[in-house]
Amino acid sequence: MLNITLRQLRAVAALGRHGSVTRAAGDLHVSPPAVTLQIKAAEDQLGVPLAERSTGSMALTAAGRLVAEAAARIEAVLRETEAGIAALSGAERGAVHVGIISTAKYYAPRALAAFAAAHPGIELRLTVGNRDEIITGLAQHDVDLAIMGRPPTDMKVIADLIGDHPHVVIAPPGHRLAGRRDVPPEELNAEVMLTREAGSGTRRLMEAYAAAAGIAPRLGMQISSNETIKQAVMAGLGIAFLSAHTIDAELRDGRLTRLDIRGTPVIRQWFAVHLAERTMMPASAALLGFLREAGAAFMPGAATANAG
Predict the structure, then answer these.
(1) What stretches in the chain show pLDDT beneath 50?
(2) Rounded to the nearest 10 degrees, how much is the dihedral formed by the CA atoms of 308, 184, 208, 231?
């Protein structure tokens, strides 16, 4: 393993990401035969197969996945070393790969844009995904800093509070409950509730609220997109329980209304999360400090919007 090269490691990692020699070659800006040669050379070094053909694609073996994980850690160390050297020279340079869960896309890009304007020497790379995808990025040392609502509990992370994350019940304008104050939760039993997919943070929070309130709304369509849920509510297909940060524009222009249901908004928090075991480089530390101090200022004002 000591004689394996960085090119070989990168070829294995790229194949693992893309499942195709051709796509891995495009990622690495080399020819497909070059990728094949690098992987073959790594296999000869290690004495085990690192990739195998599956239905219509290439997949890493168990040994290949171990090599890809090692490659990710090595890449992270190289990035950290580069940032550390830049810090020693007194230059504000470096790069931060930020992962955000999809709901955070309604405010996080504005915060990142403000940070980038104040720190032009720091390069920001942004990935938007579901919670599992962002956590995987953290675990593989690809994502440096993640913005999410529920920090993972099965890995050692440090989570810094950014601000509150309210969730509310929304309905189309003219709904029978619109404009009423302190509506008993039992009123929702007569409604069709459009929901996020099972296992999503929003779905879990909605189910917890319903259980605590002792209610059982009729569950309608299961939809994996906040945007599609909003459109379905506007079309009159039901009501929904969503993050207030996703509906600010629709509340302001009257396309949706927030129902004043007793016990809502349900408040959770946003966190900036990073691996405890990784050294925080100056660029990442600068972004973390900015999010801690100013991140909440970029969140939409839907949390305090009046119902209706």
Answers:
(1) 302-308
(2) -30
